[in-house]
Structures are given as structure tokens and as C-alpha cells.
Amino acid sequence: MFKLLVSTFCLVSFFVSSMAQHAPNIGIGPELGLPSGNFANVSGVGLGASLKIDVPVSANFALTLHGGFMNFFGKHNYLQNVKDFTYLPVKAGLKYQLSESFYAEGQIGAGFPLNDGQKTLLVWAPGFGNVFKISGKNRLDLGIRYEGWTGKNDQVVVLSQSSNTKGFLGIRFAYLFNFN
């Protein structure tokens, strides 16, 4: 798993260094996940961190690679004792600049489990965000997305669970490094 992530990031770094006309951005920061629908029955909140690389291919389009760590804390009470959902989500996608700082993006990938009894899940995430200039080349990226993790896990049995998708509102606040 770790070798796959390192290999992917090395490949993207090589690709990025070969693109002379557009400078890539790398963002690193914390993530917050707010479960929705039936997923809120088994987890109240998720916390994580991620690294995201944007490789511009034109003035308004960029390819993205997003990898990180996400843990959704299982609910514990007298009726249920749900274990945490801990995953390494890896996604690739497209980002479109709607204005100088506002963007929309879509990503798809896989969520690799770190806990026993969990399976690899299909991950998909449409979202939007805004880049805020702080000073000079320093910038912050605030992204909001709906993210779905689709697939079955043996670990969770909820009476009202009629879907195999664990959906949540994802909020990412990252510091951007520009290699210009």
C-alpha cells in the first residue's frame, strides 16, 4: 500500500517537473468529514489530513491527485459499538477554474482500509473551493465537497442501512506551495 502511494507520487512528481509552461501547486492540510444519511448513524465525525497536487494543463484546467488519511470515529453507546473507519483515500480528477480564485472539481479513486474487516471502496467526490491569497505567494485553499465511499464492509450492520455508500460533507483547509 505504502509503496503504491510513494510510486504514484514519484510518477506525478516526474510528470510535474516535465511541464515547464504551467507551475503545479501542492497543498497540505487537515480535513473534516461530516457524515450524512445512514452513515451518520454509525459515525458522528471524521478527521484526517491530505496532500493534493494540481498540475495545470491549460489556463483553466488542471489534473489533480489527492491522497491522505481519514478516520471516521465509530459511535459507541448502549445500543451499538461501531469500530472506527480508517482509510487511505487516493483520488485523481479534474479541476476547472471558474474565476481567478474559485474552482469546481470532480475526483474518483479508491479508499484503502487500515482496519481489519474493511474492504477497498470506490471513492468519488464532486466539489468546489476558493483559493485565498495571504501575502506574496502564500495562499490557502478552502475546499468543500460531497464525498461518497461505495462498497460493502462486513463490519457494519445498521437496520436502516439501505445503501452501500458512506457519504459525507468534506471540508479541507490547506496551505498551498507553488513551484513557479
UniProtKB/TrEMBL annotation:
Residues 1-22 form the signal peptide. Keywords: Signal. This is Outer membrane protein beta-barrel domain-containing protein.
